[in-house]
């Protein structure tokens, strides 16, 4: 099984690594053909040196040059669209159509072109002087940016293609892309085309570099290194907070999108009017893509009463009848099972699902848990454990006052409704 090279300072070469890993096809649980290296610190060190040198050149380039690079990058990606989408499908089991080819790929190229337009206009650089609110700002490139991509959006949030990447490049910062281990091959394809586009548009060497994986300790060291300008991270709360702690201790900016349970409050009135419609909408939102969206409604607050009882039983039946989707990886399957176990040990009852399996490849039965408002408040932090996947927790409050207490106990989330 061949081990793939890393991309450092405009050159693909063998990594300094003592370990390798393989991506898996989640739908079959079979390993894919290539092995990828777990880089030692020496690879990070070389990438940081090269990125620091690239930054000195990149920060002085006109926005027009950066825009041309991003536009050439998009042109090259369009040529390899089918190959990129096919490999992303193999590595994640996300459907080719409509998800990857018709939705995520156009979103990816669209945001890269938006970044190109922003680089060309340079409007982000203009000083802001707001005398009414006593705000003054002046923005400029900050330095090499490390981008850690998530497992669930291999294209639009990818470390060498996503929004963090596009914003960093548009602002004149080189990127060290750290591939997600669920789709390293897809990220490699993006890095190949980024390098080629950079060469065609005469961008500095090391404008874009690629590492696949490091130890946790080296990841923390990377985000805190004096040569790094900032880090963008999308992923789990536990890993993200460890990186944040390291970056904070070094005084380095880090921008994170972490786990989120996305609470939804459903009141009796709307259930009286359209219980069936709300149940259909909720099941569609929760189970779509096997629940592997960052805005998946993982926590629903209800008020005790007949309407809520009917809603719970209706939703539980729909969960049992709905097809079980494929999860992104073995790690997601294990994490979902473990986090559901945590919620159940904290007092939540299982009214649908609860077992691993039931679908193609890595999977878990569509699972609905129910807890009382008092159970939630007694262990509010644990009850907000994210069960990333096709699962949700219903919390039934005694009354509006207790529902307000539950809302006050909620941590930060991406969405709420």
Question: Overview of this structure, please?
Answer:
The protein is an alpha/beta fold and 417 residues long. The protein has 14 helices and 16 strands. A 5-stranded parallel sheet has the order 9-8-7-10-11, sandwiched between helices. Strands 12-13-16-15-14 form a 5-stranded mixed sheet, with helices on both faces. Helix 3 crosses helix 4 (96-121) and helix 3 runs antiparallel to helix 6. The model has no long low-confidence stretch (mean pLDDT 95).
Task: Record the SSE blueprint.
Blueprint: E1 6-8, E2 11-13, E3 17-25, E4 30-39, H1 41-58, H2 63-79, H3 81-92, H4 96-121, E5 128-130, E6 135-137, E7 145-148, H5 163-170, E8 175-178, H6 184-200, E9 208-211, H7 216-224, E10 230-234, H8 237-250, E11 254-257, E12 264-265, H9 268-287, E13 299-303, H10 306-321, H11 330-345, E14 349-352, E15 367-372, H12 373-378, H13 380-383, E16 391-397, H14 400-408
Parallel strand pairs: 7-8, 7-10, 8-9, 10-11, 12-13, 13-16, 15-16
Antiparallel strand pairs: 1-2, 3-4, 5-6, 14-15
- The DSSP helix count reads 14
Helix/sheet category: alpha/beta
The proportion of residues in beta strands is 15-25%
Overall 3D form: globular
Uncertain stretches:
none
Number of strands: 16
The Rg value, from CA coordinates, equals 23 Å
Strands of the largest sheet, in order across it?
A: 9-8-7-10-11
First and last CA, distance: 48 Å
Helicity level = 40-55%
Helix-strand topology string: EEEEHHHHEEEHEHEHEHEEHEHHEEHHEH
Mean pLDDT: 95
Largest sheet: 5 strands, parallel
């Amino acid at each position: 099984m061949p081990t793939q090279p890393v991309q450092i300072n405009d050159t693909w070469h063998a990594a300094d690594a003592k370990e390798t890993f393989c991506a898996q096809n989640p739908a079959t649980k079979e390993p894919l053909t290539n092995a990828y290296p777990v880089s030692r610190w020496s690879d990070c060190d070389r990438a940081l040196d090269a990125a620091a040198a690239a930054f000195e050149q990149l920060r002085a380039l006109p926005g027009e040059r950066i825009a041309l690079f991003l536009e050439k990058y998009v042109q090259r990606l369009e040529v390899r669209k089918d190959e990129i989408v096919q490999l992303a499908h193999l590595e994640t089991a996300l459907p080719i159509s409509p998800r990857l080819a018709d939705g995520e790929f156009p979103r990816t190229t669209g945001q890269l072109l938006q970044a190109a337009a922003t680089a060309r206009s340079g409007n982000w650089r203009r000083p802001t002087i707001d005398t009414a609110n006593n705000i003054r700002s002046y923005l400029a490139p900050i330095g090499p940016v490390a981008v850690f991509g998530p497992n669930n959006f291999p294209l639009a949030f990818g470390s060498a293609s996503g929004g963090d990447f596009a914003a960093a490049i548009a602002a004149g910062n080189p990127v060290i892309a750290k591939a997600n281990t669920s789709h390293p091959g897809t990220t490699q394809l993006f890095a190949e085309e980024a390098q080629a586009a950079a060469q065609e548009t005469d961008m500095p060497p090391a404008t874009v570099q690629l590492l696949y994986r490091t130890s946790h300790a080296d990841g923390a060291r990377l985000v805190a290194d004096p040569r790094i300008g900032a880090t963008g991270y999308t992923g789990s709360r536990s890993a993200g907070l460890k990186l944040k702690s390291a970056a904070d201790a070094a005084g380095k900016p880090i921008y994170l999108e972490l786990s989120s349970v996305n609470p939804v409050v459903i009141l009796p009135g709307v259930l009286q009017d359209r219980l069936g419609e709300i149940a259909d909408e909720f099941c569609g939102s929760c189970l779509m893509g096997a629940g592997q969206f960052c805005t998946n409604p993982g926590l629903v607050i209800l008020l005790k009463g007949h309407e809520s009882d009917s809603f719970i039983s209706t939703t539980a039946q729909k969960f049992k009848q709905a097809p079980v989707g494929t999860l992104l990886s073995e790690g997601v399957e294990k994490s979902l099972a473990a986090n559901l176990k945590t919620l159940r040990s904290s007092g939540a009852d299982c009214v649908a699902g609860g077992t691993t399996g039931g679908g193609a490849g890595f999977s878990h039965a569509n699972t609905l848990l129910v807890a009382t408002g008092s159970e939630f408040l007694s262990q509010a932090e644990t009850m907000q454990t994210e069960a990333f996947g096709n699962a949700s927790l219903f919390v039934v409050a005694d009354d509006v006052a207790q529902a307000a207490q539950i809302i006050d106990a909620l941590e930060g989330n991406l969405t709420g409704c």
